[in-house]
């Protein structure tokens, strides 16, 4: 049998997650794909012990709106510990793709730096709809699962930084 490359096979911290409150912003553009990303992200968080009541989902029209929605959410809710942004940008006939992808990547990075909390880039940038399907529960895994795993890893790293308990390396 062909060995499938599954990028979702990454470490998911599964202890001490019960107090995390996580916002998930989902773009409605290519909603079959982003719906699958959302499902992957939510199931990963819940299976890792984040209570269902601590995962708050919001929808926006397209990926371009993800960074501003993440900033709005953090502005409105001081108790949110992290935000996962989920979207799917597919190459079309015009230059929309490059402008949107660049703005979204830069915007999401900027929100994370400004608020100094994890703001995760769970946005597919694909040439074709098939590539997007392969990465939203298909043969290349589910980017939503990876986004949730990255979010939990970053939350634990953040916690260690703020409690000044980094790993000490002897040598
Ligand atoms: C306009 C547009 C286009 C052409 N393509 C996509 C896409 O592939 N993926 C996506 O998430 N959004 C797309 N959008 C919508 C923009 O992200 C945005 O919602 C609109 O330009 C309104 O600001």
What report would you give on this structure?
- The protein is of the alpha/beta class and 171 residues long.
- It has 5 helices and 6 strands.
- The protein has a 4-stranded parallel β-sheet with strand order 2-1-3-4, sandwiched between helices.
- Strand 5 and strand 6 (141-142) form a beta hairpin.
- The termini are far apart.
- The relative contact order is 0.22.
- Ligand DLZ is lined by residues 27, 29-30, 61-65, 87-90, 92, 96, 100.
List the helices and strands and how they pair.
Layout: E1 22-27, H1 31-47, E2 55-60, H2 66-76, E3 82-90, H3 96-115, E4 119-126, H4 129-134, E5 136-138, E6 141-142, H5 143-162
Parallel strand pairs: 1-2, 1-3, 3-4
Antiparallel strand pairs: 5-6
Helix pairs in contact: 1-5, 2-3
Ligand DLZ binds near residues 29 and 65.
């Amino acid at each position: 049998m062909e060995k499938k490359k599954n990028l979702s096979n990454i470490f998911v911290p599964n202890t001490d997650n019960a107090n995390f409150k996580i916002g998930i912003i989902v773009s409605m553009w290519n909603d079959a794909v982003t719906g699958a990303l959302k499902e992957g992200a939510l199931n990963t968080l819940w299976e890792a012990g984040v209570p269902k009541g601590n995962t708050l989902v919001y929808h926006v029209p397209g990926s371009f709106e993800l960074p501003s929605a993440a900033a709005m959410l953090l502005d409105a809710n001081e108790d949110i510990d992290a935000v996962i942004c989920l979207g799917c940008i597919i190459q079309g006939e015009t230059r929309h793709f490059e402008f949107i992808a660049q703005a979204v990547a830069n915007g999401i990075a900027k929100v994370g730096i400004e608020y100094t909390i994890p703001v995760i880039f769970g946005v597919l940038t694909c040439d074709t709809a098939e590539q997007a399907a392969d990465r939203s529960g298909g043969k290349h895994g589910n980017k939503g699962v990876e986004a949730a795993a990255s979010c939990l890893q970053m939350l634990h790293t953040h916690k260690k930084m703020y409690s000044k308990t980094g790993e000490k390396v002897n040598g």
